## 1
Amino acid sequence: MNSAEMQRKILSAMGAKWAERPFVPSVTNYVTAGFVADCQLAAGCSAAMLNLPDEACEAAAMCSAFYVNLGTVVPVYEKTIPAVCEKLSELGKPWALDPVAAGLGETRTKLLLGLKKHKPSIIRGNASEIINLARLWELRDGDFSCGMVDSSNAAEDAVDSAVLLARYTGGAAAVSGSIDYVTDGIVTAASYGGSPLMGRGTGYGCALGGIAAFCLAFAEPFTAALCAVNAFNYAGKRAEKKCAGTGSFRSAFIDELFCMTAEKIAHNPFEIAECQ
Amino acid sequence: MNSAEMQRKILSAMGAKWAERPFVPSVTNYVTAGFVADCQLAAGCSAAMLNLPDEACEAAAMCSAFYVNLGTVVPVYEKTIPAVCEKLSELGKPWALDPVAAGLGETRTKLLLGLKKHKPSIIRGNASEIINLARLWELRDGDFSCGMVDSSNAAEDAVDSAVLLARYTGGAAAVSGSIDYVTDGIVTAASYGGSPLMGRGTGYGCALGGIAAFCLAFAEPFTAALCAVNAFNYAGKRAEKKCAGTGSFRSAFIDELFCMTAEKIAHNPFEIAECQ
Amino acid sequence: MNSAEMQRKILSAMGAKWAERPFVPSVTNYVTAGFVADCQLAAGCSAAMLNLPDEACEAAAMCSAFYVNLGTVVPVYEKTIPAVCEKLSELGKPWALDPVAAGLGETRTKLLLGLKKHKPSIIRGNASEIINLARLWELRDGDFSCGMVDSSNAAEDAVDSAVLLARYTGGAAAVSGSIDYVTDGIVTAASYGGSPLMGRGTGYGCALGGIAAFCLAFAEPFTAALCAVNAFNYAGKRAEKKCAGTGSFRSAFIDELFCMTAEKIAHNPFEIAECQ
């Protein structure tokens, strides 16, 4: 696998599809739910954010792919998240997990432990979250540090944990940072671009997970995760040139997602190397 | 009733009022609550979003009109929504209902069934939601299909269901689509304008319901619903010309609502015909 | 204390700090959580919004300062808010309280009563909220009126209540209005600027509380509260000149926060007078 082959794979998977409207519901957090939905809708998704076990499971039965984000754990999620992930497993539906703040609090830790057996198709997090999840799932040694929303590690430090997660799930894992890494446990892609402004506004990581779930409607996990990461890096780099700060950046970023094409995704700079 | 008469009615109802600050609280969803509040405040509302039965009922006692939106059903809403709608009925206060995703899940279905007896002044939904609600309330035959946030029907297909809902409640019903329909069961208005971009961002339907509730502070249900729909069609059409995608569209749309006048509302293109 | 001394104090406290990333988590409302986080991140905070008692208390142990906002009281907050405020007291960590809609509903009233003993470092509210809280805590006479999100009092009318609150807590209190007042019970600052558009969009008060909490990471309560208020007045005044309504105002406002400096904060117009 090299970059040119990967570009052809992206173009083939996403070609006519970016403008379709697959149903990709979420169980997500209330801080960034509106922005996640806006990004998904801009890209061409039919989105719905759900809380209760009954309707989340019904939506899982109807969906093309699903998104689970642990940003704000509310009490009903102790029922909803295990129930919907069990349902997705049963049905063999692809889904993306964002283990936000992995390591923070007993409830969140218990929830994340319970998801190990359901093997999400894509895991997307910052470096701390990816490292903490790999430790929590006992894929690597080391205590996990107290979970933070903002990562205290560089993305590079988490690549080995991402590889372990991907090998365990048989899917893909993505680490966000100034360079983004995506791996299926066999090869790892480094994707370039984006903007430091994405760390100075809320929800870009959450929305990336939502777009990764959207891409799972068209492509296998590694391609889907790389498409999402490339799209965000392309959109972030372009939006930065059109803004006067993080307020106007957000509008410009959504505009770029709305105008996204398979060609832009395929040609955002990235490199591929085999995992060791 | 013809369009010219309706325009005079709109100008008379909304003339000096669009800039007043009636208190119009909501029980709504967390995905779009911020956007609903922004639209209501831009139009001149005093808004508040409430969760608990005690404070929702207190707010109902103080309000000019109320808005109930079922976007994200959370556990406490099984108590709050029946309690606040009972209170609104008792007090004879006008209120608007957005039956988001009607048909999805047992809890939502049970909640919507329980609202039948409270006869909302305005019901606002997409075609699927309006058809599903009319079936759920046994106003028309046919199984209801599984509720989706994005409609799988054209607005035209839901006009007969809207008429049945309006005849049952004695209020008005509005169906959103590329053409919007508003009916009181006697006449139906078709309102033109808007933008396809409103379907590619989250919350335009929710916010339309919130503005319909705001207009209930000044006008009877049919006029209020048509004012809200005309305002959104005017704002959407104008905002589309000023944007580069769905991000900048949202800002431009709120700007247009902030600059709305009774004249703009009255003169947005619409037609009126008697129901059969 | 005069304005020139205060300006030096602001420059000294905020000089190099505005660009640091202290961890300032919140228990806040879902309507404006995204905007609060955006403002905090734009200013340089590491933000996290929490619901459950376990993780809110863990975050309190790690934080530089904390923010508690009662905008949307959800059931779990009856446990979370007392627990986290108890923890903050124990640890001696600074925190800001926004008593949104103080006076509305039994649950909210009981929650606010329970916070009296924990003495928040900064209390930020509109005039009605500040007056109602002072009455609820029995610092002044008079029934409290039913709490509204939009104030039915002018900020001037609440200065005496703010002074009583600040004297009771030993911290600072800030009243938002067309002129903003900040007091530590000894001196009161009047801060000028801002924009009427801040009352026509949701969350500017909530976000001000979040930025006040951020400033508590660097400065004692009175300086922190005045820094936050001056920053908002500067940003609001500038953003108003660059916008076409409340939609584009919001983007421009966040851009201004992103470009904020200690100099701008220190030189926003304000006056200081001794309390009587």
## 2
Amino acid sequence: MHNRKNPPGHFSRLTIEMYLCLTSYFITDPAMHTSQQLTQLIERYIAGLTFPEHPSHLYAPISYTLEEGGKRLRPMLLLTVCDMYGGPVEQALPCAGALEVFHNFTLLHDDIMDNAELRRGKSAVHKKWNHNTAILSGDAMCIYSYHLLQQSPPALLPRLMAEFNKMALEVCEGQQYDMDFQFREDVSMEQYNDMIRLKTAVIFGAAAKMGGLLAGAPEKDLDLLYEFGTELGIAFQIQDDYLDTYGTSEILGKQIGGDIEESKKTFLAINALNEAGAATRRALLATFADHKLPLPHKIGRVRTIYDSLDIPRITRKIIGRYLENASGLVARLTVDEQTASPLYGIIQSLADRNK
Amino acid sequence: MHNRKNPPGHFSRLTIEMYLCLTSYFITDPAMHTSQQLTQLIERYIAGLTFPEHPSHLYAPISYTLEEGGKRLRPMLLLTVCDMYGGPVEQALPCAGALEVFHNFTLLHDDIMDNAELRRGKSAVHKKWNHNTAILSGDAMCIYSYHLLQQSPPALLPRLMAEFNKMALEVCEGQQYDMDFQFREDVSMEQYNDMIRLKTAVIFGAAAKMGGLLAGAPEKDLDLLYEFGTELGIAFQIQDDYLDTYGTSEILGKQIGGDIEESKKTFLAINALNEAGAATRRALLATFADHKLPLPHKIGRVRTIYDSLDIPRITRKIIGRYLENASGLVARLTVDEQTASPLYGIIQSLADRNK
């Protein structure tokens, strides 16, 4: 066993496409899958999930939600870890699928709660159908994720299910804090961190750990994998916050500025409120509270304030720090550096995401 | 093993209180629990479920929903069956609790979809808090039911979970059909039966079967138990339809006439539409569609039409038939008549329910 002490520390200009080439190059163990192969496996698996034709209002929104456009990050993380420990990737597919379906269920219900119009460039389910359909289809998706999870190897089911349940309840807690924070001006950075850990990061943690569980990874590694996934997930959410203000609607497939419109306490907003002097702080809060201001103008004003406070640079720096933490955790796993290279690849591919 | 061929066929004036005395009397096997003991076990178990204090908007509605007033029919059915086969009732409690929590989750979300004001004499969650809170707390309850289920004996978990998932998806299907039928005038009795089997009955079927699974009942009995629970559940739902028009708000703890207000295709409505001549049919449909008519008047008019068509008697007759079917299925179980007496007791207690 080899503890890698000096993980690669810079993840700057690497795109997902470059990462795909990179991992194909790195992987010399013929038993390991390339990331393209894993992507293909999970895409085929999800495309192969068929739902009854009736009642159509229940199942059509589920197919619609799952059909395309997702990054499949969570199932890919699970499969990558499972593969890395020599686990049976085919047997891990239902569990990977469960995470993806559960994630999509949370998006579907979150879109109702946040009154979001678009998701992945298409109408959100509650807009395309209606509120009741979105509630009930979401419920069915949540249950369906357990239906997939149940197809995991029976001996592992109690532990996988415990992990999944803990994560799923925490995701609900995170969403509740996120909604609560909309009505508060005094959210601290610590409270924000707790919120995104619950809302977004624990599903990455669970994905990595469950991949390890499915492959029979050592107990010590399971905890490290959970921490690794969580750090990755926090970086991912801060990037999400960043892209909601500085991203491009066409690339993201959703309206930008949604967080601004809903007065979400993002990493950017909390940092700006902390950094700003009294006058700028008042101006920022007034902009958030101004529901008559058209959204493009509102985004413009908020950006100007953020830029003046150097928020974009601060944000990118913190994202880098979380990704470095993730990398440090990979280095502490019992697997050697070459075997762990797909995880470094995932870290690097996240570093430069623009959607 | 004794197949009881002549089950008791009349369930007329027996109240739940009388049943409790009856089963205490019947049960001579000292290893079996009385229904009071089982009720106490499940009530204590549910009262012992503690939720985190924060986020309060997520967990307070769950405690509020579970705290009191439920009939606990589904967990009682599970425990009764488990006990009847000499199973370990204490080990069955998490599974029984999972069914009760899941059932309450569906009520919470159904109340949003049906825009119901009251539940068990208290404000529905979406009225006491708000829509978003009701959606998210419901989600957490659904997940929490799996958290309880996971605490079942590990060796049985894969099968229990398969049973639970199938039931849970079917309940969503039933709710979707129920909503779809609101906008249709041509719902057949067969379609209605399918709908209530899914929406209401399968959870009774799953409860009985899971009770058998937990006790290691013979495979043949598991199928019969499922059928028995399903027949019982259909009778229960038709009674629910009946009580929504002919029940008493104070006893039911919810507004009566909710089905009429929402143009639900109940057993009564479908029978009336089938039985009525053209003029009465038009009058009934016009009354359903009249959204300006105050609800008490609307209920009065609908009752007058139902009474003229003898709907109450037809309804009670059909309920009796389903309860007799249930009784016939109990008679086919491998257990002897005396051992099965708690199930006859449950059938009898349902026969005269008024809430």
